[in-house]
Automatic annotation (TrEMBL):
Binding site for Mg(2+): 40, 60
NCBIfam families reported for this sequence: mutt
Reaction catalysed by this enzyme: 8-oxo-dGTP + H2O = 8-oxo-dGMP + diphosphate + H(+)
GO molecular function terms noted in the UniProt entry: 8-oxo-7,8-dihydrodeoxyguanosine triphosphate pyrophosphatase activity; 8-oxo-7,8-dihydroguanosine triphosphate pyrophosphatase activity; 8-oxo-dGDP phosphatase activity; 8-oxo-GDP phosphatase activity; metal ion binding
Lineage summary: Bacteria, Bacillati, Cyanobacteriota, Cyanophyceae, Oscillatoriophycideae
Name of the protein in question: 8-oxo-dGTP diphosphatase
Organism of provenance: Cyanobacterium stanieri (strain ATCC 29140 / PCC 7202)
């Protein structure tokens, strides 16, 4: 059992009608500064994953989303933190994404995700998205 602080993070893979995925760049301060990420955040007391993701996306990007299919959970230990990312597909139902709590936003093709510098825990998500994309094209 780890003595590290533990967090549960609701994470959204927001996909548009063309199959592009929304990623955002963290601000240049704090833990994992300037890294790209799938939007989301920490659970609040009493929230389930879907409620957490909907709230966090509204706070961070100013949009309303619909949470869809569960993609995966990722458990990862950093030197300073242990976490579980609870990852769900989502789509925007209203609004345009804004940089309310991030430095930059981009829509990218699944195969382009590998070109960005993500925190280590995110690479399992990228691999799963890219593998699923390949399967859907066959």
């Amino acid at each position: 059992m780890s003595n590290l602080p533990y967090l549960r993070i609701g994470t959204a893979v927001i996909v548009d009608d063309e199959g592009l995925i929304l990623i955002d760049k963290r601000r240049n301060k704090g833990s994992m500064a300037n890294k790209w990420e799938f939007p989301g955040g920490k659970f609040e007391d009493g929230e389930n994953a879907q409620e957490c993701i909907i709230r966090e996306i509204k706070e961070e990007l100013g949009i309303d989303i619909e949470v869809g299919k569960h993609l995966m959970n990722v458990k990862h230990d950093y030197p300073h933190l242990s976490l579980t990312l609870m990852v769900y597909y989502a789509r925007i139902i209203s609004g345009e994404p804004q940089t309310l709590e991030c430095a930059e936003i981009r829509w990218v093709k699944p195969e382009e995700l590998s070109d960005f510098d993500f925190p280590d825990a995110n690479y399992q998500i990228i691999e799963k998205i890219q593998t699923q994309q390949i399967k859907t094209r066959v």
